[in-house]
Write a sequence for this structure.
């Protein structure tokens, strides 16, 4: 599974407003680094980040582990609201 698809599947499972979820990959200046931008509705931002950032940290850990199995690239995930 692609890293962007994996990220989107996890975020969609957590979000209430699934129609407003947007996950895109962007180029970075750093070598061997992937930047994934997650955009969710204002109502879902707390649910995606979680208490003390636990959900967002778990998301980053899962996607990073998947990257190590395939491409061995560093993954940065930015979460923001519309």
């Amino acid at each position: 599974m692609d890293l962007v698809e994996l990220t989107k599947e996890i975020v969609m499972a957590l979000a209430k407003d699934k129609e407003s979820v947007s996950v895109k990959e962007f180029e970075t200046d750093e070598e061997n680094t992937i930047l994934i931008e997650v955009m969710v509705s204002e109502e879902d931002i707390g649910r995606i980040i979680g208490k003390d950032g636990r959900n967002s940290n778990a998301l980053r850990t899962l996607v990073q582990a998947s990257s190590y199995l395939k491409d061995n690239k560093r993954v940065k995930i930015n979460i923001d609201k519309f």
Q: What stands out?
A: The mean pLDDT is 94. Residues 3-81 form a domain with the GMP Synthetase; Chain A, domain 3 fold (CATH 3.30.300.20).
